Amino acid sequence: MLQSKLLIPTLRDAPSEADVVSHQLMLRAGLIRPLAAGIYTYLPLGWRVLRKVSSIIREEMDRIGAQEMLMPAMQPAELWQQSGRYSLYGPELVRLYDRHNREFALGPTHEEVITSLIRDEVNSYRKLPMILYQIQTKFRDERRPRYGLLRGREFMMKDAYSFDADWESLDDTYRNVYYAYTRIFDRCGLTYRVVEADAGTIGGEGETHEFMALADIGEDTVAVCSHCSYSANLETAYTRHGASPAEARTVPKPEKIHTPGVRTIDQLTASLDIEAGHILKTLIYMADGRPVAVIVRGDHEVNETKLKNALRANHIELANEEIVRQHTGAPIGFAGPVGLSLPLWIDQEAAIIESGVAGANEPNYHLRYVVPGRDFPLEHIGDYRNVTEGDSCPHCEGTFKFYRGIEVGHVFKLGTKYSAALGAGFLNAAGRENPVIMGCYGIGVSRILSAVIEQNHDDGGILWPMAIAPFHVHLIPVSVQDPVQRGLAEKLYYRLQAEGMEVLMDDREERPGVKFKDSDLIGIPIRIVVGKQAGEGLVEIKERGQAAAEVIGYEDVVTHVL
Ligand code: ATP
Ligand code: MG
Ligand code: MG
Ligand code: MG
């Protein structure tokens, strides 16, 4: 492609709204442009990278037998009501009305849509196992969209859903997707760790894993064993269950509010005849102190009707773990010391700060604006909160070191949560009806760009890994006016393309300094400069990131590059 024709609006300086390197470089290199907060146009260079990432994903998903499809972004509200998520998803769900005043949502994820499809279209074990996936624009009205493509409100996700006849088969499917993910992230050139997503299970069996690209700006904290392969997401005390010291300063001091009739966990558990901290995992309170949900451990035998009635009497709605997790991003298995109910309105740190939180630590009263870590010690929150750097790993003699990570992928064994709620059953070999066993698997396609740039840049700009670079070769005739230089550059341009290389030729009449600066910024892996020595058939070749160029004969370029 000819650079003179391509829309690559590079910028000398980073716009002030960009406060992390990847965001700055994406704007400066002309990959993206904002339209509104968290909503971006992908310009030609950015789109080329996205397409490359997408094709790697497609190749690896297809390799494990997954089938690509495409579902609607616009989803009827009824479907979300059936799964119970419509009210519980909260303000992150983008809602809209059609001309008949019917309510819709713009899909933040597609469990509901795909489960209803499978309910209607797959009825026999003979079709199972099955993995379906799509690469699609998702909508989440994030409380705090930021860092460019890292946390958008409209972003691109690859989401896959698996359907199995039994749990053993799901184990295989999960493993296949897991390894497909490692190949995808390897090929994208990312440095990452696979971590147990619910660190509440440190030492236990994880059924959900996150793929964390390591980067200082990452919003998650990952504990990595120095010795074995064990790593876990701490759902960091700061981002999930508290606030950074700077953010904590913006939160008012805890304030007692009168909430008549609401009891402490102690009282509640006593009235329910259950053990505190065992069944009751979490109470979730609105900022006004009204309890809205309680999490009950699914694996515990409990008289559900009795429990529900007791909770209702306390004006507490029963929500299942999955719904609460979806709604709050809260980890399961999070129980506080008796008498201290936990602040849990916590999708992100901002949530704590804005809605405030309350603890039922006195009958008829709650606290709001509690910041864990500021107002009480973090180690009081729960078991895994006790993990600190240097602690020993539960699996070997190694110790934990903490890193920051960007969640680029997430795999999750769902089981029958959605198939049961939406009635997606199948006939097994014995002719009996069973709910289908599901898994779901996401990749932040657009977020990968941010993560790759965070990990691959220098002062001059981006250093794209070859596999996802917008072009393979940047061909730069220093002076396009010079017929010798231009002629040689054009010859190379066609030659390299004939060999299957994607070449961007900088045919602009710009000063060499401008061209080289732009070239560093854009970060194409191989640069070939056709300059003064063109008359002798010599060109300069250099890898992005390499200090010095090599002078070679133009006939050797192809073998050199391939
Ligand atoms: P996060 O913890 O960062 O909010 P999530 O756990 O809510 O992400 P999932 O529901 O697991 O996200 O979605 C699958 C993948 O989609 C994530 O692993 C992430 O890579 C990507 N993703 C989620 N939210 C966003 C967003 N707002 N912008 C860009 N990518 C996102
Ligand atoms: Mg989220
Ligand atoms: Mg997450
Ligand atoms: Mg996730």
Automatic annotation (TrEMBL):
It is found in: Cytoplasm. Keywords: Aminoacyl-tRNA synthetase, ATP-binding, Cytoplasm, Ligase, Nucleotide-binding, Protein biosynthesis. It comes from the Bacteria. It catalyses: tRNA(Pro) + L-proline + ATP = L-prolyl-tRNA(Pro) + AMP + diphosphate. The keyword Transport does not apply. Its main location: cytoplasm. Its EC number is 6.1.1.15. InterPro entries: aa-tRNA-synt_IIb (IPR002314), aa-tRNA-synth_II (IPR006195), aa-tRNA-synth_II/BPL/LPL (IPR045864), Anticodon-bd (IPR004154), Anticodon-bd_dom_sf (IPR036621), Pro-tRNA-ligase_IIa (IPR002316), Pro-tRNA-synth_IIa_bac-type (IPR004500), Pro-tRNA-Synthase_IIa_type1 (IPR023717). Residues 38-465 form the Aminoacyl-transfer RNA synthetases class-II family profile domain. Gene3D superfamilies: Anticodon-binding domain (3.40.50.800), Bira Bifunctional Protein, Domain 2 (3.30.930.10). Pfam families: HGTP_anticodon, tRNA-synt_2b, tRNA_edit. One of its GO terms (molecular function) is proline-tRNA ligase activity. Belongs to the class-II aminoacyl-tRNA synthetase family. ProS type 1 subfamily. HAMAP family: Pro_tRNA_synth_type1. Catalyzes the attachment of proline to tRNA(Pro) in a two-step reaction: proline is first activated by ATP to form Pro-AMP and then transferred to the acceptor end of tRNA(Pro). As ProRS can inadvertently accommodate and process non-cognate amino acids such as alanine and cysteine, to avoid such errors it has two additional distinct editing activities against alanine. One activity is designated as 'pretransfer' editing and involves the tRNA(Pro)-independent hydrolysis of activated Ala-AMP. Consists of three domains: the N-terminal catalytic domain, the editing domain and the C-terminal anticodon-binding domain. Homodimer. This is Proline--tRNA ligase. The gene is proS.
